[in-house]
Amino acid sequence: MSSMASEKKKDVKKKRKMKKGIKRLLIILIILAILGVIALYLTHDFKSKTPKKNVKVIDEISEYGYTLDDNETKLYKDLFKQLSKTLSKDEVDEKKYAELVCELFIADFYNLDNKTTKNDIGGTQFIHSAAVDNFILKAKDTMYKGVESDIYDDRKQELPIVTNVKLGEVKETTFKYNDSDVDAYSVTLNWEYEDDLEYDDEKEFILIKEDDKKLSIVQMNDIEKSTED
Fold it and tell me: Where are the domains of the chain?
């Protein structure tokens, strides 16, 4: 009797161990299945959020330090070609040069739709080197402050797209720079957007020369304010 009871106890223990082993196996399989689903989701999410490729320079006017990026609008690319032709002539038409600098600036700076983040400030290559740092800081706090990130090409935000720039007037003037009156150009322009999102659409630009050659924007004024002055 004692031997039979002992055998039954052994059988019960074996069955209990088997049940525990099956439970453990099931738990492990469930955990592995959950981990597999998570890994699949993360892999899919990673693939769908592949960062944009780096912007590439596709053209340049090396003598003046201007470059053209591949993500610029058709309007900007057309204006860049005009600038390249203007600056390649033996005798540069400086009024036309001043006009094109301002038009390119507008087509880049005020066109936010192709900007990746709020730090991707457009038009900086047309700003005077002495003013560019302050210009960037101000742009981040104003015009570009609300621009959402589009690193993964999934932004839904509606942003301005410049479609046309119209010249008002180009005239010679002077500008006080480093306590001296220097030759300058005043250029007034207005521009249009694909949709009216209530952004600026007219300005006066003041340009002076850097290194006796390159024209750069040193000041921007509201049209009304400039007229009153």
Answer: 57-148+157-228
